[in-house]
Every structure is written in structure tokens, then in C-alpha cells.
UniProtKB/TrEMBL annotation:
Residue spans of biased composition, Basic and acidic residues class: 52-67
Principal localisation: Golgi
Topology with respect to the bilayer: Single-pass type II membrane protein
InterPro entries, A to Z: Heparan_SO4_2-O-STrfase (IPR007734), P-loop_NTPase (IPR027417), Sulfotransferase (IPR005331)
UniProt cross-references to Pfam families, sorted A to Z: Sulfotransfer_2
Organism of this sequence: Mola mola
Record-linked PANTHER family: HEPARAN SULFATE 2-O-SULFOTRANSFERASE, HEPARAN SULFATE 2-O-SULFOTRANSFERASE 1
Coiled-coil region(s): 24-51
Region entry Disordered, spans: 52-73
Keyword Transmembrane helix assigned: yes
Molecular function terms from GO: heparan sulfate 2-sulfotransferase activity
Protein's name in the database: Heparan sulfate 2-O-sulfotransferase 1
Length: 360
């Protein structure tokens, strides 16, 4: 090479160096493309292996189920969802979607009707309920709903817990809706006589007069529903109950939506649990009866009434819980959907498996 440099003119030497550099860049690009192709091939092979493994597991599960009918199938047909609905949070609207879909999607819907709508079960009823939910195979898969506070199934030695979901609402809006519901009912069952029917006093008049039906203590409901069957949960203004409700919301509930963003809640459930909620979003948008329940004769409260309620420590705690739930829901939604042209779109699967050993 040294002899060539002596014999070659400087211009030719420069051209030779440029040619060499171009050749090296070309080789590096080819090597990079080969590496990318190898990566794509490895991912394709990994996905193929995953599909084969899933197919084998499915076939093995079917063979095991056929060969041993005494054991319940460990698949999505064994799933139980519990929606321990809080009153006046659009719970009937959402539940009607489940009723509309149960025949098409092949699951059972069961209403938990407690005496006098008492959200706290006796210890013997807790045992009965847990036994029913876990062992009533003829009713699986199942969607249970009712005005019942959270019940921890692990306390009863249950290994496969149900999936909890729920919806909550701005605490003052929920109370106002409930106040007028007790007096005027709604458009769902307009002929049904309500407990306070005939009382024409508005919510603002109730607040001004210091009435019991609009007292701050009536705001204390969403926290105990999530807190559960402990006595402290129902002590109005308990800080322990607030923290327990937050803990359960994050650790025991798969998803908790808010009334104000119910469509997003429905869409995310359909993506996460299509076995139950396939078609729910379209039904919510276009259905004629699934989400039309509205409280009759409801009058928005004045600013003065709202400010008066917001001065109470109970509102501050219930609102803190609502804001906590809203932030959690928006966090989950931000990692599940994207917005484009005013429409929300679910994100595609964003993970895969690779380097699966041993090789078949």
C-alpha cells in the first residue's frame, strides 16, 4: 500500500480513499439491515412459538376438561365479575348494557337484592354469598351487581377471587341526584312511588333549612362502599375508612370509572374483558334503552348551596376520594387509548415474548 501511494498521483490517492470510505459505509449499512432482518425474524419466530404454546395449552385444557368433569375449567368461562354499584352513579344505565349483552356473549347476570337495600351483609350471608359466587358453576361466567359494599373474598379462603369493577360520581352531584330521585323518581320506572314522593322542597331549600336529607353526612357513601364490611368504614368522617377505600380501589378493583366519563369506562372494559363486553361501546352509543335513565324534576343547586356543603370535612374527604379515583382512571386511560380527530382509539398490543426456551 505504501508503494502504491508513492506511485499514484495525489488525486488518485484521494479518489481511492473516497472509494474505500464509500465501500465501508455501504458494508455497514448492509450489516445493519441484516441485523434488523435478523431481529424481525427472531420476533416472528417468537410469536409463532407463542401461538404454538397457546394452542397446545388450549388443547391440553380441553382434553383435561373432557377427561375430568369434576374439576371446573380454569379459563374465561370460570370468570365472575362483581359490580357493587353505588346508588345514583349511572349504575342502572351501565347494568342495562350487561343485560342487553348477556345472551349474545353467553354469560349470566344476577342482581344482588338485599333487604331494605342494606349494603352490609351479616357474617352468615357473607359466607353464603362467597360460596354461591365461587361454587355456583351453572351460573358461570357471571356478572353480579347490587348495592353491596366491598367484600374481601380472601378472608374466606378463596383462591380465585372475582373481578371487581365500579363507577363513582362527583359527591355533590350524586347527592343532588339522589335527593330528587327519592321525591320524583326517574324515567326508568315512572309509575313507581318513591319514599319521599309529595315533598316539593328543592335541594337548595333543604340546604338553607339544614334538612337531614341534604346534610353533609349524606355525602358519606362512596368511601364506605369501597371500604367494605368493617365497622370503621361506616363511621362518618373516618380517615381510616378513606385510606382503606383508596387501598381497595387500587389493589382490589380491576377498573373504576366515573359517571362523567362513562363511555370511556365502557370502551376500556370491552377491550379488557371482551368475553363479557364485546359490543358494549357501540351499544352505549346507539342503544335505545341502555343509558337513558334520568332523574325527574332535578334542579341544579345554587353556588351558595354548593359552597355550604364544601365547607364540611365530610365533603372534603369524599371529594378527595373522588379526585383520587378520577386521577387513577385517567392514568389507566392514558395508557390504553389515544385521541385522534376527537375520537378515542384503543392501543394495539404493545408487548411480545422472545427468547423462549427450551426450543421445541
Amino acid at each position: 500500500m505504501g508503494l502504491l501511494r508513492v506511485m499514484m498521483p495525489p488525486k488518485l490517492q484521494l479518489l481511492a480513499l473516497l472509494a474505500f470510505a464509500v465501500a465501508m459505509i455501504f458494508l455497514e449499512n448492509q450489516i445493519q439491515k441484516l441485523e434488523e432482518s435478523r431481529g424481525k425474524l427472531e420476533r416472528a419466530i417468537a410469536r409463532h412459538e407463542v401461538r404454538e404454546i397457546e394452542q397446545r395449552h388450549t388443547q391440553d385444557g380441553l382434553r383435561e376438561r373432557d377427561s375430568s368433569a369434576s374439576f371446573p375449567p380454569d379459563n374465561e368461562d370460570d370468570v365472575v365479575i362483581i359490580y357493587n354499584r353505588v346508588p345514583k352513579t349511572a349504575s342502572t344505565s351501565f347494568t342495562n348494557i350487561a343485560y342487553d349483552l348477556c345472551g349474545k356473549n353467553h354469560y349470566h347476570v344476577l342482581h344482588i337484592n338485599t333487604t331494605k337495600n342494606n349494603p352490609v351483609m351479616s357474617i352468615q350471608d357473607q359466607v353464603r354469598f362467597v360460596k354461591n359466587v365461587t361454587e355456583w358453576r351453572e351460573m358461570k361466567p357471571a356478572f353480579y351487581h347490587g348495592h353491596v359494599s366491598f367484600l374481601d373474598f380472601t378472608k374466606f379462603g378463596v383462591k380465585r377471587k372475582p373481578i371487581y369493577i365500579n363507577v363513582i360520581r362527583d359527591p355533590i352531584e350524586r347527592l343532588v341526584s339522589y335527593y330528587y330521585f327519592l321525591r320524583f323518581g326517574d324515567d326508568y320506572r315512572p309509575g313507581l312511588r318513591r319514599r319521599k314522593q309529595g315533598d316539593k322542597k328543592t335541594f337548595d331549600e333543604c340546604v338553607s333549612a339544614g334538612g337531614s336529607d341534604c346534610a353533609p353526612e349524606k355525602l358519606w357513601l362512596q368511601i364506605p362502599f369501597f371500604c367494605g364490611h368493617y365497622s370503621e368504614c361506616w363511621n362518618v368522617g373516618s380517615q381510616w375508612a378513606l385510606e382503606e377505600a383508596k387501598y381497595n380501589l387500587v389493589n382490589e378493583y380491576m377498573l373504576v370509572g366515573v359517571t362523567e366519563e362513562l363511555e370511556d369506562f365502557v370502551m376500556m372494559l370491552e377491550a379488557a374483558l371482551p368475553r363479557f363486553f364485546r359490543g358494549a361501546t357501540e351499544l352505549y352509543k346507539t342503544g335505545k334503552k341502555s343509558h337513558l335513565r334520568k332523574t325527574s324534576e332535578k334542579k341544579p343547586p345554587t353556588k351558595e348551596s354548593i359552597v355550604k356543603l364544601q365547607q364540611s370535612a365530610i365533603w372534603k374527604m369524599e371529594n378527595e376520594f373522588y379526585e383520587f379515583a378520577l386521577e387513577q382512571f385517567q392514568f389507566v386511560r392514558a395508557h390504553a387509548v389515544r385521541e385522534k380527530d376527537g375520537e378515542l382509539y384503543l392501543l394495539a398490543q404493545n408487548f411480545f415474548y422472545e427468547k423462549i426456551y427450551p426450543k421445541n
